[in-house]
Structures are given as structure tokens and as C-alpha cells.
Design brief:
The protein is mainly α. It has one domain. Helix content is 49%, strand content 3%. The protein contains 12 helices and 2 strands, in the order H-H-H-H-H-H-H-H-H-H-H-E-H-E. The longest helix has 22 residues.
């Protein structure tokens, strides 16, 4: 089997893992059709390591970003949420974004539409750090519990929350999300058609945390500098617009393994 065929096989395996986690993290799908059902789950005292709205009745685990924002508003340190993200970040980095995150899976499926594709300007990619610092930590902390459900609260506009909880409510109960939430999710859905994972690249605070963790995580991509002939095959293959020749620990790398189409790259499991 050629290197390219093996790479495509791994990519196919990734798609199966993504779909499995999409269902596995949201096993109570039947509840979506009855939005009056209690959204609480006995398992939601534990956070998922990725963005997955726990307001959605289908969700199995709590969203660490929602937990962090709420904890910040009541001036309590979210040990469980932060601990889960730190462990996930140190061991896997944004691998969790590429293989586990349901919102990432939805974005990639929408991106398959046969339309022109565009890159995301580099400055916009710093937006997720602004969301993390401002809407998840600073404003909820400053405004306190008054921030919950207002313009200063991250869950108010979170596209994951609107897609997984707000839109089903529209379909089955005619209970509309806020205008701001609809504008954000509408812009994200349009962007998904033309750009690769715009929510992950520009808005997701978990992407910001794991992007920083990519610098130190045990899992990383290694390039054989002695054999590399600068063919740029890895650069052209990367949908996240990462240049492995310059930086194999980029904060934008989601470990989709497309770059392994080149013989001179491999997955490395050491923090070096």
C-alpha cells in the first residue's frame, strides 16, 4: 500500500471516529424532539474535553467553557473543567479538536459542499484568544452573576449552543434564540461553506487553550529534516493552512494527518 493510500485510509478512520464521538457525546438524541424534557443528566457533573453544549438535551457531559464562564461569574475556580482541559492539552493538544469535537465534525461535513474555498486571514485566528479572555473569564468575573444570559456571556452567542440547542427549539417549539445568536450562527454556517473550520480557527476558546497546549503536548508531528526536499506536499495537503516546514507545533494544527501524504512526516509521541 502506498504512503498516499495509507494516509487516505487514516483520514477515513478519522471520519469514523468523528461520527462516533458525535453520537457518543450526544446519546440522548430522542430528547431533542421533546424540548420540554429535562435537560439535566446525572453525568453532567463531569466535563467533556471539547466544545459540546450541555444545554442540549442530547448531551452526555458538561461543556468546560460553560462551566468556566459560570464559575468566573460566581468567583469560583473551576478545578474540574480546567483539570480536564490541562490533561487533554498536555497529552493530545488539538488532536481532540480534529478527532473528537462534534462541532468540528459538523463544520467539516458542511465544508464538503462543492463551492469555492478560501483561507482565513491570520489576524482573525487570534479571535479565539479574545473570546477566551474576555467572554469566558474577564467579563463574567467583573459583572458577576448579572452577566449570565447577557451580551457579556459567552454562551449567549456560542454557535455550538445555537446549533445543538437553539435551532432544535425553533423546529419543534418555535422558541427562537436571540437575534445576536442567530446572526453569529448564520455567519458561521455561511463561513463553513467556504472556509475550513471557521469556528475552530476564529472563535473557539477550547481551540485557544489546546492551541497553546500544542506547543508542549506529547503528541506532535515530526518532520525528517535530513530527508526533506522541500517539495511542499505537506503544505499543500494541510486544510488548516499550517506550514509543517516552518512549524510542526502550530496552534492551528488539529492532527488531521493530511500532511502524512508526504513520506518525510510522522506522528511523534514524545514531548520534544
Amino acid at each position: 500500500m502506498s504512503k498516499l493510500a495509507k494516509s487516505r485510509r487514516k483520514i477515513s478512520k478519522r471520519r469514523w471516529w468523528q461520527l462516533w464521538f458525535l453520537i457518543g457525546l450526544n446519546p440522548f438524541m430522542y430528547r431533542v424532539f421533546n424540548v420540554s424534557a429535562a435537560a439535566a443528566s446525572r453525568t453532567r457533573y463531569m466535563c467533556a474535553p471539547i466544545l459540546n453544549c450541555h444545554n442540549c438535551p442530547a448531551a452526555l457531559l458538561a461543556c468546560p467553557i460553560g462551566v468556566m464562564a459560570q464559575a468566573s461569574s460566581i468567583h469560583v475556580f473551576p478545578f474540574v473543567a480546567v483539570g480536564i482541559l490541562l490533561v487533554g492539552g498536555v497529552f493530545a493538544g488539538r488532536f481532540l479538536c480534529g478527532w473528537v469535537c462534534p462541532i468540528g465534525t459538523i463544520q467539516e461535513l458542511v465544508y464538503k459542499a462543492k463551492l469555492p474555498k478560501f483561507g482565513i486571514p491570520r489576524p482573525l485566528r487570534y479571535g479565539k484568544y479574545l473570546v477566551l479572555g474576555l467572554l469566558v473569564i474577564a467579563l463574567p468575573y467583573i459583572l458577576g452573576e448579572k452577566s449570565y444570559g447577557t451580551w457579556a456571556y459567552v454562551c449567549t452567542y456560542c454557535p455550538a449552543s445555537t446549533m445543538m440547542w437553539g435551532l432544535p427549539r425553533v423546529l419543534f417549539k418555535m422558541d427562537w434564540p436571540s437575534l445576536g445568536a442567530l446572526i453569529v450562527v448564520g455567519a458561521c454556517l455561511v463561513a463553513m461553506l467556504f472556509t475550513f473550520r471557521p469556528i475552530c480557527s476564529v472563535l473557539c476558546p477550547i481551540g485557544a487553550i489546546y492551541g497553546l497546549a500544542n506547543k508542549i503536548s506529547f503528541l506532535n508531528i515530526k518532520i525528517d529534516r535530513k530527508k526533506c526536499n522541500s517539495c511542499n506536499k505537506c503544505v499543500k495537503a494541510c486544510p488548516a493552512e499550517v506550514n509543517p516546514l516552518k512549524e510542526t507545533r502550530s496552534g492551528d494544527c488539529i492532527y488531521c494527518l493530511e500532511c502524512l501524504q508526504c513520506d518525510h512526516l510522522k506522528v511523534n509521541l514524545r514531548a520534544d
